[in-house]
Amino acid sequence: MVGAGAYFALKPGAPGDVAQAPEAPSQLAKVEPRPALKPEPAPPAAQPAAPEQPSAAQKREAEEKARKEAEDRKREAAEKAKRDAEDKAKLSAEKAKREAEEKTRQATAEKAKREAEDKARREAEEKTRLAAEAAKREAEEKARVAAAEKTRREVEEKARVAAADKAKREAEEKARVAAAEKARREAEEKARLAAAQKAKQDAAKAEAVKLAAAKASAAKAAVNPAELFQQAGALEGQGKVSEAVRMYRQAASAGHGPAAKKLGDIFGRGQGDVSRDYQESLRWYEVARKRGENVPVAKGR
Q1: Cα(246)–Cα(140) distance, rounded to whole angstroms?
Q2: Deepest in the core among 55, 89, 207, 248, taking most CB within 10 A?
Q3: Is the dihedral of CA 192, 198, 201, 207 positive or negative?
Q4: Non-local CB neighbours of 231 within 8 Å, separated by 6+ positions
């Protein structure tokens, strides 16, 4: 059975008789199906009668009913749209909340991870720093001990060397004093012996001088000292020093002063095959001085 509203909606001509369908919401997330209306129970079968024209009251009632139904549908649609929007907003809010919570959880986890990594890095750096400091302190301590040990050994070595050097100097000093004392005694003994020998030699020389003077006086007429001196000089120039010395002796014994001085020079420095003889040099210088020659004062050897 078709309702009165549907009837009047299909009937053309009368203004205001057509019920306007409610406008659907422009934005609906989801439209739930409206429950189907239960069909009105069919009236008891009646004898077909000639169709009656609806009265004005029925017409108004039908229009009012259609208007109410349209308003109900519109209200229900609006409520449904509102519910859908609220559900959508709720779902969006819940989704946003979950996403925010997930972001917060991830941010917290990332922060915790970074903090853990930073803590582990700082702990590793601190451990490395402490290990480096410990190694540095250990190295410094080893270096200090090594330096102290080196200093101790150097001090001990210096002390040992100083003691050895002192002992050496003391021994050398003792040896020097002993040697000096021995040399002094030996020198005194030599001087005593030399003095005795010199006295003996002086006596012999005096005797020899006397004999030489006598010989010179005897041979002066036969020997020319000047010629002997010249011959001796020629032999000396030829490198025959020993032969020249023999002729210088003859000339000096004959009273020739330059020959005596020449003998003093030759024996004083040693020349050719004639060895140095200090005592012999002094003796002939003395003879030359007595013969009037200018002989420098003899200096110590």
Answers
A1: 89
A2: 248
A3: negative
A4: 247
Q: Within 13 Å, how many C-alpha atoms sit on residue 286's CB side?
A: 10
pTM for the full predicted model: 0.30
Distance CA 255, CA 137 (A): 100
DSSP letter for each residue of the chain: ---HHHHHHH--S-TT-SPPPPPPPS--S--PPPPPPPPPPPPPP----PPPPPPHHHHHHHHHHHHHHHHHHHHHHHHHHHHHHHHHHHHHHHHHHHHHHHHHHHHHHHHHHHHHHHHHHHHHHHHHHHHHHHHHHHHHHHHHHHHHHHHHHHHHHHHHHHHHHHHHHHHHHHHHHHHHHHHHHHHHHHHHHHHHHHHHHHHHHHHHHHHHHHHHHHHTTT--HHHHHHHHHHHHHTT-HHHHHHHHHHHHHTT-HHHHHHHHHHHHH-BTTBPP-HHHHHHHHHHHHHTT---PPPPP-
- Name the token pair of 277: 């003889």
Q: Are 269 and 296 in contact (CB under 8 A)?
A: no
40 versus 283: the higher-pLDDT residue is: 283
Q: How confident is the model at residue 13, as a pLDDT?
A: 45
Residue with token string 């009632």:
61
Q: Do the Cβ atoms of 288 and 261 come closer than 8 Å?
A: yes
Q: Which residues pair with 271 in a beta bridge?
A: 274
Q: Which amino acid is at 200?
A: K
